Each structure stands twice: as structure tokens, then as C-alpha cells.
From TrEMBL:
The name this protein goes by in its record: Cell division ATP-binding protein FtsE
Domain ABC transporter: 2-227
Taxonomy, superkingdom: Bacteria
Family statement: Belongs to the ABC transporter superfamily.
This protein's record includes keyword Cell cycle: yes
Natural source organism: Actinomycetospora corticicola
Matching NCBIfam families: FtsE (TIGR02673)
Subunit architecture: Homodimer. Forms a membrane-associated complex with FtsX.
Keyword Cytoplasm: no
Cellular localisation: Cell membrane
Amino acid sequence: MLRLENVSKIYPTSARPALDDVSVDVDQGEFVFLIGPSGSGKSTLLRLLLREETPTRGSVYVANWNVARLPNRKVPKLRQRMGCVFQDFRLLPTRSVADNVAFALEVTGKSEHTIRTVVPEMLELVNLTGKADRMPAELSGGEAQRVAIARALANRPLVLLADEPTGNLDPETSDDIMLLLDRINRAGTTIVMATHDRQIVDAMRRRVVELHLGRLARDDARGVYGARR
Ligand SMILES: Nc1ncnc2c1ncn2[C@@H]1O[C@H](COP(=O)(O)OP(=O)(O)OP(=O)(O)O)[C@@H](O)[C@H]1O
């Protein structure tokens, strides 16, 4: 479902490769933690999957798309099939909770009818039905992240890419978010989550892909965060 084949990425302004000959294969329905020290290439890997960057060498596949070779006009189609959540939530501050979720459907051209059906479904999924009319500034961090997750799932993506989704949350709220992501994954959505959170990785015991200075250092089927450094 996601495949990197001997991928290297060298940014023009950087001496060492951000990714160096990395090969990873992720099946549909997997939950993968992407770990590694700051600067090891995690965000670069996610950006390559989204075609926000192109590899210097190697190939990137998402479902049947050869991502690097995809014509520009098809990139929006690719991105529609990939939901994203980030450490800083990235909600639209002037739109309500419901409208933030609706926005994802509007930009992909969904009908009014679909939007009216899907938005409440998504809010129910993340347990925010009662907060549909709140503004983002009125939400806790955990609630804001749940809105972001609802928005990311609205178009029924093949995969959810999460870049440090618990990075701004306290441990208890992080656990709630992980329970939600686990539930979403068990319902069939593939999840790739970049994180520095040792406790979460150790508690979940899912696949762990570790990068070090751009190289694949480890790929464990049911891994832990690893030796304390
Ligand atoms: N746009 C860019 N231009 C030049 N160099 C970059 C760019 N983006 C990232 N890099 C470099 O590529 C390497 C990998 O960065 P990347 O952001 O992928 O790491 P990361 O593992 O996500 O780090 P963090 O955990 O801090 O988010 C770093 O050396 C970084 O400085």
C-alpha cells in the first residue's frame, strides 16, 4: 500500500542526505510508528509520500500511484486519499468545529447532502458531537486534535499520516488520542505516525520503523522505542 524503494533525498542546501537508501513497505491496515532523533528524516519521509517533496533517487508508491512520477494535475487526487494530522492541529481559526470538518469535504467537491451526512458521522467518531458549534479557540488541545482527526478522515483516506500528533498534549490526553487512533486503525485505516513519545510506542507494541541520520536503523514488527539514549 505504501512503498519506498531505495529512496534517497538530498536537499539542495544540505550536505548529508535527509534520507539515504531507505526501503520500507507498509501493508493496508498496518499501524506503523516512525521514530528516530530530531533530523533523522521522519518528516521528509512523510513529505515524500504526500509529494510535497520528490526523491533524489529511488521510487515512492502509494496504492497504485508512482508518486514521484505523478503528473502535477493528479497530485490533489493523491492527497485526497491521504489524511494528515500534525502536532499543531492546524484548524481554521475562524470556522466552527463542524465547519472545519466540512471544509475538507468542500474542497474535494462533495455535495451539500454528503457534507450534511458525513460531518456528524465524523464528529461522532471522535466523540465531539456536542461541540459542533464551538470555535477552535474554545477547545482543549485534545479536543482540537480530535477535530483535526475528524477532518483528516472525512474523505475516507487510504492512510492517515500523523506527524507528532501528541507532541503538544499532556500524557493523559495523548493516551486518549492513541485510543482513538487505535480504534480508527482497527476499523481498517492504515496509520503511519512519526513520534518521539517513548511511552506511547512502548504501550502500543506496534510496528516500529526507526531512522538514524536518514538511514533505516530498525524495522520491528512489534517494537518498543528502544534503548534510552
Ligand atoms: N527543506 C529543507 N531544506 C534543507 N534541508 C532540510 C529541509 N527539510 C529537512 N532538511 C534536513 O533534512 C534532515 C532531515 O529532516 P527531517 O525534518 O526529515 O527530520 P525529522 O526526523 O522529521 O526531525 P524532527 O523530529 O525534528 O521533526 C535534517 O538534517 C534537516 O535539517
